[in-house]
Amino acid sequence: MSVLMATAQTASAQAPTLTPYAPATNGIVSQKFDHTLLYTGTVTRFSATGLPSGLTLNATTGRLSGQLNVAGSYHIVIYAFNGTAKSTPLTIDWTVNPLPEGTVGTYYALIDRHDWYNGGYGGSLRITVTKTGTYSGTITRGIHRNPVVGRLETWPGAIDPQGIFTVARRSPYTPLTIDFGLPLGGNSIYGTLREPNGDVIDLDGLKTYTSAGGTPTAYVGRWNTAYELQQEQRGNATYPQGASWATQTISKTGVVTWVSRLADGTSNTFSTDLLVGGGTLAHLMLYGYAGSVQGWQYYDVEDGTTVGNLGWVKSANYTRFYSGGFPLHYLTGTGARYTPPPTLNDMIFGIAAGVNNVSLTFTEGGLAGPYTQVFSLGARNTITFPAGAGNPYGIRMTMNLSTGIVSGSGTALDFIENQPTNSRNGTFSALLIPGREQAVGHFLLPASRASNSQILSGKLIGQEYFVDN
């Protein structure tokens, strides 16, 4: 009897009917999708075949949801069941497009300086986007460095892919939120960083040259750049008065290696990426996280020159080099591609070998006044300084023609006749800058002979010397 009743119930079960459905537009990789199937009748479960990667069907509710992973053409077949009674199939033919052209790749951005968010030291964001829309990388803000992982959100049509992630902070501080976008065809990144009800600061950057499909052959080589104070800081001893410099080598893979020296003597070697448009961005924490330098540099392969701008700040710390720190200020970079003399017999900058044909000029940095030392650049770029009274500062110098780096010292800088105790030991460093045909850099000199006196920075210029007729 029970078997007959079960058979009768099964026979009387009515198959549900699925309401026709098709997405209004093609999908796109990393798009979020959410649709609940409509039907008439009674449904006990749903099933589907041919779903795009990343989508799932809830067998109980009929909800299709997920984030699309793989581009392609999909033939989706869906059934609704009432017990064993099965609906006629709902078929959906749907195309999922790839991410917008140019989205995949590596991006590098600088984050604005902000006293609360990064101690006024700025920051950087580096992320790599995959073809599925996932991204990973690192965010740096002042002394903090955090990993980044997430997934882009995309929409059909001409809409920039967007990303959003949070960075945790220790209690009781709420997480920071970072939103960013990747402009269609722009090979760039823009965005903001904020906390709830707090200030909003910007981030801006570019895609790396190689991940945008470029071959950096034209950029390969060495580029020498001097970074100098802007007019309003010149003569103000609050700021190091010397010129900073960097020699940058660009590899065939687009890696930019910096060997740099700031005007207070701080040396750094680090690597960044060549970016779309022939530039590179740099963010570097200094002085045990008590300062930073941040900015950009561009290389012009047409005329072989460089331009740049670096923001530099230092907080007070216990050293002999500007222990009180100095405010944020900006250095203007100018330079050019550097090629060493091809043979030992070729003179740097085409200077004719001779006697008393080159000079070094020292200014600011605690000197009683500007001083110019003339010396000789002979055959094979041999350097000879005068002896005795002809070289009162006791200057010695070496020049690395492979890199263009100049270094030296003086045993009696700021020597004044009849005031021998005024002189001090000092050092200097500069870089050969083609186009300007100069060595541009800085010297470092204690303010006095006291062992704890502050060490000041002055400017150094080396160039061909002409005797006035």
Tell me what the structure shows.
Residues 1-10 have low confidence and may be disordered. The N and C termini lie far apart (130 Å). The chain is 3% helix and 50% strand. β13 (134-141) and β14 (144-151) form a beta hairpin. The chain has 469 residues and is mainly beta. The chain is elongated, with a radius of gyration of 33 Å. The strands form 6 sheets. It has an 8-stranded antiparallel sheet with strand order 14-13-12-11-18-17-16-15, with no helix packed on it. One of its GO terms (molecular function) is calcium ion binding. Pfam families: He_PIG. InterPro entries: Cadherin-like_sf, Ig-like_fold.
Give the tags.
34 strands; disordered N terminus; mainly beta; 2 helices; eight-stranded antiparallel sheet; Ig-like_fold; Lipocalin; about 475 residues; Immunoglobulin-like
Query: Structural class given helices, strands, pairing?
Result: mainly beta
Helical content, roughly?
under 10%
What is the count of structural domains? 4
Count of DSSP strands: 34
Cα separation of the termini: 130 Å
The CATH class name of the largest domain reads Mainly Beta
Give the overall pLDDT as a whole number.
94
Shape type: elongated
Q: What fold name stands as the CATH topology of the largest domain?
A: Lipocalin
CATH architecture of the largest domain, by name, is Beta Barrel
Outline the biggest β-sheet: 8 strands, antiparallel
Count of helix runs:
2
Sheet with most strands: strand arrangement: 14-13-12-11-18-17-16-15
**DSSP strand content:** over 45%
Unreliable spans are: 1-10
Radius of gyration: 33 Å
GO molecular function: calcium ion binding
Pfam family, one: He_PIG
GO cellular component, one term: membrane
